[in-house]
Amino acid sequence: MKVKIEESWRQRLQEEFDKPYFERLVSFVKSEYGRANVLPPGHLIFHVFNSCPFEKVKVVILGQDPYPNPGQYYGICFSVPEGVAIPGSLANIFKEIHRDLGKPIPTSGNLDRWVAQGVFSMNSVLTVRAHETGSHRNMGWETFTDAVIKKLSDEREHLVFMLWGAYAKEKAALIDSSKHLILTTVHPSPRSAEYGFFGCRHFSKANDYLRNKGIEEIDW
């Protein structure tokens, strides 16, 4: 199956695109776009891939579901477009960066500047019906994004994987910890952040690791 996606990713993921599960997934997603309000807009499903080529990735942040509110999700996990109110989880991420690195808390929730530096912020499910969190779970996206994580682990080295919350922590099984740094804690959601996300210092730890490997740090 031919999929429009940045070339370095297409080369590595073509074997997934050719599998029967992916064809079933595509037909499900197309039918959903035809009968419901689905997020993100179709051309932005692979936005994080198109904005961050395979060899540019330095840090991987894993989420689960896209934001379900129209106008929020545009293909980058935790990020919202310029001018959109900052969701609670992202506000807590900014608070932790402020505590950890002393950086001022941004007024914009747009994380494109992170992605441009090699922060690959991906949900495990890449589409959702508006106002229906989890509505596209278990349709094939998880199989695909697990393959993405495994491909990054196998073919790259010295990446930082940030796994926040029980769901993301399960993905550690796909990652070779002998050649990558895996950072785990609770989810930054307002419901859980105070139980370990605040004070985790993942952002300074990531930069320390990258610096020690001779890789340019992220300007969080």
What does this structure look like?
The chain has a 4-stranded parallel β-sheet. Strands 1-4 form a two-stranded antiparallel ribbon. It has helices spanning 7-17, 20-35, 47-51, 88-101, 112-116, 141-155, 166-169, 202-212; strands at 38-39, 59-63, 119-123, 128-129, 160-164, 181-185. The protein is built from 8 helices and 6 strands; from the N terminus they run ααβαβααββαβαβα. The protein is globular. By secondary structure, it is of the alpha/beta class. The chain has one domain (7-213): Uracil-DNA glycosylase-like domain (Uracil-DNA Glycosylase, subunit E, 3-Layer(aba) Sandwich). 37% of the residues lie in helices and 11% in strands. Belongs to the uracil-DNA glycosylase (UDG) superfamily. UNG family.
Would you kindly provide a brief summary of this structure?
With 220 residues, the protein is α/β, with parallel strands linked by helices. Helix content is 37%, strand content 11%. The chain has 8 helices and 6 strands.
**SSE order:** HHEHEHHEEHEHEH
CATH topology: Uracil-DNA Glycosylase, subunit E
Spatial order of the strands forming the largest sheet = 3-2-5-6
Number of domains: 1
Oligomeric form: single chain
- The CATH architecture term is 3-Layer(aba) Sandwich
Count of discrete alpha- or pi-helical segments spanning 4 or more residues:
8
Instruction: Write down how many β-strands occur, each being a DSSP E stretch of 2 or more residues.
Output: 6
CATH superfamily: Uracil-DNA glycosylase-like domain
